[in-house]
Write a structure and sequence with these properties.
It contains ten helices and no strands. By secondary structure, it is mostly helical. It has one domain.
Length: about 230
Amino acid sequence: MGCYDWIHHHIKTLGSIVDSHGYAKSVADTALVFVSGMGVYFAMEKRNWKQLITERTMRIWLPFVFGMFAIVPLHILVWRYYYKMELHYTYDPGHLWFLANIFIYVLLLSPLLFYIKKKENGKIVQVIKRIFSTPVGLLIVITAFMAEVWIIKPVPYELYAMTRHGFFLGLLAFFFGYFFVLSGDAFWEMLVRWRWLFLPMAIGLFFSNKLFWNEHTSLSDRIGIASLDF
């Protein structure tokens, strides 16, 4: 590659870095699911499983259903009117799709999470807490996210809304979000203590992926590194 070609390639790549709305949004939305998993831990402190499911039904499922049949159709009608398309009622989850996913996560994981909560002083949970008080815990999280993309092979990585990739990405985030809070102050202290290493690594991986990987990079490597960047 000549000097001009190299410069031209990296100017285009830098443009994609600046215009990374899809990638940034996938990170922000997944962070929201992490927080949802954390919230379930606190909710379990004062609720049994019936109370938790009832509360999450009222707070998540009913708003999702109402929005799918009442709010999103209005948005679709406005969109159709603006583009002079035929007007008719269409229900759709639209931008509320993630609420259904979060509700499903609660249903799927609550038996396991309640069991863990009940055995919080047991040996297994104490081992989990010790692991997540070290960078090894984050290595497990990273490995799980990389395994998800190597198995699902989402193309593009940013396409997560109403896809298998988005569902399992959120499931992992919800699950680990619960364990982050379960681990207590030791986990958060570990993040602060090792921030000098985590932040440069994250920045370096993100820019190396954007700048130096090209069309010859294999699909599995691309999506694996995208997950590691995340």
